[in-house]
Amino acid sequence: MTTYIAYYRVSTDRQGRSGLGLEAQQESVKNFLGAEPDVSYIEVESGAKNDRPELKKALADCKKFKATLIVAKLDRLARDAEKILNIVNSGIKVRFVDLPEINESPTGRLMLNMLGGFAEFERRLISVRTKDALAAKKARGEKLGSPNPAAGGAVMAAAADEYAATVAPIVRSIVAKMGAASLRAIAKQLQAESVQTPRGGTTWSPSQVSNLLQRLAA
Questions:
Q1: How is the chain split among helix, strand and coil, in percent rounded to 5?
Q2: Where in the chain is the domain with CATH 3.40.50.1390?
Q3: Three-state SS for 95?
Q4: Which residues are catalytic?
Q5: Which CATH class is domain 4-105?
Q6: What tens digit of pLDDT does each residue of 76-108 get?
Q7: What is the pTM of this model?
């Protein structure tokens, strides 16, 4: 009998090949269930893309077997509030390992709506800021991109991704407790909880939170 169907998503082909982020998702799902899921689907695609064949297969199986879809993190399912709610409203049960308090209750659905909206807002805000920053650099005549991307770039990116994946559950927990939170409010709470920044300090700024969310949105 198929009870749980896991859906994992990594954002780039490089991450898909390396397993970056994937093993952490698989481990969290296994620990949550106390066993391996009955069926698993792995997607290599950006959360902003609508065409996700593996997710379609997972949802189809959930309907067929009346199984529960389980994902390690809310943003692995989608970064669009409407998309997340459409899946829930289709009658498919969904569990989020990083947000176990979200369920089919009215309170759970309200939290899901708020968090989905927050994720979508941050994704769009980060996209606008990134485009503006690149346009400003180009206007100043600065050369975009690393002059030597092969020299340690992949290692640095992998370390940054790993750090973001570690802190992400803490950020989502803060948002779940506080409701719709600003970057400044999240930074203040991270500092209050003595969460280390990427450089090892404990003083967070809104821009650092924005950078973190930008990497999670990839």
A1: 55, 10, 35
A2: 4-105
A3: strand
A4: 11
A5: alpha beta
A6: 887 666 787 788 778 899 998 988 877 666 666
A7: 0.54
